[in-house]
Fold this sequence. Notes:
Number of strands: 7
Bound molecules: S-adenosylmethionine
Structural class: alpha/beta
Shape: globular
Amino acid sequence: MSPAGLDPWAQWLLRDRGGANARYEERIEARVAQYVDRVLDALEPAPPELLLDFGCGSGALGLRALQRWPRAQVVFADPSPALLALAGERARALGAQARWRLLALDDESLRGIGDGAFDAVATRSALAYVADKPAMLAEFRRLLRPGGRLSLGEPVFRDDALAACAQRRALEEVAPPAGLAPQQPQLLRLLQHWRAQQFPDTEQELERSPYCNFSERELFAWALQAGFAQVHVELHIDAGPSLAPDWDSFTRHTPHPYARSLRDVLERDFRPEERALLEGVLRENWERGAMVSVERMAYLGASRP
Ligand SMILES: C[S@@+](CC[C@H](N)C(=O)[O-])C[C@H]1O[C@@H](n2cnc3c(N)ncnc32)[C@H](O)[C@@H]1O
């Protein structure tokens, strides 16, 4: 639990992902709304009557489904009590009355639901954190009625982790080219240390990490193995400026709850001169608008035969 009494997922979703900055959080919510709409678009041809929002967090996807489809009912399911309660508050505020209910997720809670209970299962950025994805996809299939639809949108962090691995190996194995300014090898080491606090930087760690050890191709193969039909996968890659409105919130945000913020790394891991070097260079890039953020999202749609 955080000092505010929040579990780690609530602490991340409600504070750290937006660097504790309201404007940053608003921009993230607007981006999440786009992802959620894309996930729901795949269900649009036959809007579900009963939808499971798996890993609902504060409810972005299920709330949007209640708004888009006036006859739909939604089960919001999440392991975080604080986020589940917030999803419920938001559904109540929407006036969706008896069209929703909450399900506290633990190892047993889905098993208590009968086969074929749902018309659709949808999830956004939650399956990524499940350790055994093939088993969870098989469970989604069991929960769907014949002809029911699965739609998901998951972040793909594998490339971030592979870049961290490549950079670590280059630093360990390749001598710095002659002619580098004296500060540059040190700067590369500091950058690498920061990157390794956000993504695994060894192949062994990468393979053990549920949110880094898969890509859209594994999702495709696992959905087929789980017995889904009409499996369609799209990978969207977008590069653009960071959504952070200022340098301070950029340094305080984290890309997922298992990452440390740049601010935390600067303050706790580096000596004053190292901190000044890394922050000076990064901040200068930030102020020139040269810091590019890359997002990779895999969307998968499938049907239960
Ligand atoms: C990045 S948030 C996404 C929340 C929401 N789906 C959205 O689009 O805003 C990830 C959510 O997955 C939930 N989660 C984490 N591990 C999970 C697991 N093993 N099974 C189900 N949900 C999980 C967290 O509690 C959190 O609410």
